[in-house]
Design goal:
Blueprint lengths: L3 E2 L6 E2 L4 H9 L7 E2 L11 H18 L6 E5 L6 H19 L5 E6 L1 H9 L4 E4 L18 E11 L2 E8 L14 E2 L1 H12 L9 E6 L2 E8 L8 E6 L2 E2 L3 H9 L3 H13 L1 H4 L1 E12 L5 E12 L2 E15 L1 H6 L4 H6 L1 H18 L4 H11 L11
Parallel strand pairs: 3-4, 4-5, 5-6, 6-7, 9-16
Antiparallel strand pairs: 1-2, 7-8, 10-11, 11-16, 12-13, 12-14, 14-15, 15-16
């Protein structure tokens, strides 16, 4: 789907193109996408790499016009030993499944029988089994996964070109693409984001600090993916995915009523309403001095119904110090116990202030905390 092969003067692109898709369709053939950009070494695989690969594959599939329901096969093109699977392969697969949740596509896996069996347990929809590598340990003594769609078992040349011979279970019929979506440049999207957020001086790779009374928020826009280890939510058609409540409870300990309120506030942000496809990642950490470090990253793949030529990341960041706790009427002990909730409220409140033009940030945050049951104080004095 993406990337290149070779090095130096021999380097050449291997990414699927619109012209190739048209030739395939004109020949009466169907196709299924495979993603492989480095999956031939065990060291390649990790949870972070899964986040990166998922977003690259999703973006490429959308720009190329792959229809809803298409399965994208991610290659684990190496003989992974059983003892190595838990360390990198499983986190990689879990990240793929998480990133695809709520999207229009499904996760497939290419690899040995053993790797595909592990993927099946982790929620992979279909497997492309690399049975042709009959000497690999991952194919010795392992049964076929129940979700197998293709079985690669032989290779022979046609006109000097090696051709794989694969069996098909009928699980995946492939797709025919005849319509291609419109695209937009990251530069055009950046210009609109600057206006929508009301932040002057936004440039690619430049971190802009926006003062908000006793607080401040930084905004940075990048033309690259931002892999994160935090809680990830899918955005589709300007709304956060329906599974946000479950993830907020599982990752942050929020009750359904609390997560519902946060979801309502995020959906009110003008900036989010323009994202047709992408995701948002929330991260937080507490320093030894009690400072709460908060980041919210939006990876945008489709903006106002146009696919970006490159994925664009908007990174918001802020810090909440013990002094800020007192300014908000917060007990430092309670902040330490409920820092995920407080962090989420603070960063969402700041984004709402700069995106929606809300004037009183402290009052907004405190009202939100009271509604969530974190604060009980009277806020009339704010």
């Amino acid at each position: 789907m993406t990337g290149s092969v070779g090095v130096g003067k021999d380097k050449r692109p291997k990414n699927l193109t619109v012209a190739e898709i048209k030739r395939i369709a004109d020949g009466g053939l169907r196709l299924f996408p495979i993603y492989e950009d480095g999956g031939y070494e065990v060291e390649y695989f990790s949870g972070d790499q899964g986040v990166i690969d998922a977003q690259l594959a999703l973006n490429a599939a959308r720009k190329l016009g792959f229809p809803k329901g298409t399965t994208i096969y991610f290659a684990v093109d190496v003989d992974v030993q059983e003892g190595e699977i838990a360390a990198g392969i499983e986190p990689y697969i879990s990240a793929l499944v998480q990133m695809f949740t709520g999207s229009e596509y499904a996760v497939g896996l290419y690899g040995t029988r053993n790797v595909c069996l592990h993927g099946e347990k982790l929620g992979v929809k279909s497997s492309f089994v690399a049975d042709m590598s009959y000497g690999w340990s991952g194919n010795l003594g392992f049964k076929m996964p129940k979700n197998w769609a293709f079985d690669q078992f032989a290779e022979y040349p046609i006109g000097g070109t090696p051709i794989d011979q694969d069996a098909s279970s009928g699980r995946d019929q492939g797709v025919v693409i005849t319509a291609f979506p419109k695209v937009v440049s990251p530069k055009a999207v950046l210009k609109d984001i600057g206006k929508t957020l009301n932040v002057a001086g936004l440039e690619f790779g430049k971190k802009v600090t926006v003062p908000l009374g006793p607080f401040a928020i930084t905004v940075e826009v990048k033309t690259e993916l931002e892999p994160k280890n935090g809680t990830i939510f899918t955005i589709e058609n300007g709304k956060l995915s329906a599974n946000i409540s479950d993830k907020m409870f599982g990752d942050l300990g929020l009750e359904p009523v609390q997560s519902g309120l946060i979801m309502e506030k995020l959906d009110e942000v003008h900036f989010v309403s323009k994202i047709s496809a992408g995701n948002v990642t929330f991260e937080h950490s507490v320093g030894s001095d009690g400072t709460l470090d908060i980041t919210m990253t939006f990876n945008i793949q489709k903006y106002e119904d146009a696919y970006l030529e490159e994925t664009l990341a908007v990174v918001f960041g802020t810090k909440l110090t013990p002094i800020n706790y007192h300014q908000l009427g917060l007990d430092p002990v309670k902040v330490m116990k409920q820092n995920p909730v407080v962090a989420m409220i603070v960063i969402v409140g700041m984004i709402m202030v700069i995106a929606n033009g809300i004037a009183n940030l402290p009052k907004l945050i405190i009202e939100f905390l009271v509604a969530l049951g974190i604060l009980k104080e009277d806020i009339d004095h704010i």
